[in-house]
Request: fold
Amino acid sequence: MKLIDMKEHISPQWAEKGYQLPKFDVEEVRKKTYAEPAWVHFGAGNLFRAFPTAVLQQALDSGKYDRGVIVAEGFDFEIIDKAYAPYDNLSLLVCLQSDGNIQKKVIASVTESLKADARFEEDWKRLGEIFANPSLQMISFTITEKGYAVAPADLERGLEPALIMGKVTLLLYERFLAGKFPLTVQSMDNCSHNGDKVKAAVVAYASKWMEEGLVPEEFLEYVQDPAKVSYPWSMIDKITPRPDEKVQRMLAEDGFEDNYTIITDKRTYTAPFVNAEETEYLVIEDSYTNGRPPLELGGVMYVDRETVDKVERMKVCTCLNPLHTAMSIYGCLLGYNLISAEMEDEDIRGLITKLGYAEAMPVVVDPGVLKPAGFIDAVLNKRLPNPFMPDAPQRIATDTSQKLPIRFGETIKAYQARGMNMDDLVMLPLVLAGYARYLRGIDDEGKAFEPSPDPLLEELRAIVADLEVKEGEQDFSCLKKLFGRRDVFGVDLYAAGLGERMEKMAEELYAGPGAVRRTLHKYVTAG
Reply:
């Protein structure tokens, strides 16, 4: 069976295989949304198809809501042509469970798919109509942190911007001209204080255009007026990897024909289906100027800004991101290429378990809406061991120098601020000492490997370039140049009382082939 045939009818045989259909009248929702749009989302990629669309589908299935979401893609237009249009905007969500099972759900909450660019005249005209409609409540984004960048050259293009945030600002100008209608501009990207990033970009374009006399001063006031346009913070957490071969085979065995991978010219990997982990979190600051879709019916948590910040810090500083970085460093050194495989390694599992529960958890601020212990339990027992998650330590190790100040430096600062005993930190300095060995680019068998891309990679590698992986004496004084860098670790590790201890750990990690395993096992099993 093909995806497009599943919108209205599915046989009991397919239902028995776990394929679920929408419970609402798809055509009625499409008509209602076309006439009175409420939500436009920018970014037609896999995260959107796996999470926000599924959340909205739950709201629609409940019978308590009647409008879908319109998706607009401003970067890779082939996604619309190849992953949306041929399937009448339907997709198949494949939920990958940690026990090896999958659940399959036909998602029909997307009512239109548009190319956000003036070169596509009909689509651009339709977006203008939507933004001019008083019914529009929210626009949202999953465009990655890079999507909020403002290039000076794009600012010089005036009212013909090429970048997505310029296009969005131009559409906001349409809304301003139509009646200064209120709207919420909602980032759902995985970056800190994401609402501020959107606002900064919009204000940059509006300010430049006002200076050049292209828009009135009132437009700048409009996009900065929190009663008219709001930019809430959010924390999102869900892993949506590329289309997985194991999933494709399982769908093929079912007889589901649309089980292939689509690769665009811009190297976007997508498919008529999207596979994702079962665990998901979306916490949003409840700051809306024109109402909002009832996404709480699909599990979204609406809170105040302070709570969003606490949830984000819980995730980034303690319960997920530091564990990922620890696994990336030691996974690369020990020759792993899958995170799920690392979770079968008792030493690595012990490292991240102690790092999370014993060392970082004592300084976590409980956000209330999510319990830190429950969050980390899901990470250790469901998310990281999931055999369907083809995530690699090499990918996670990208830009490690930019991640360490938040993922580890904040915990050290919290220990200092509370006057806690720094000797209680063992796994944390072991991870950072492991980074000094990782930078050398030699694995535990003595084989060279290429560390993942990082803006400071060559500079930091030069510091450890003279160190050798060998037994016997050598001069490790170069590590003072590394461990003393606040820009890399968030603190001066010597001033924090950890530098000398980390030097000794690094000496052990460099002591010949097998030293990484011996050292990791020693510290993880001690006590």
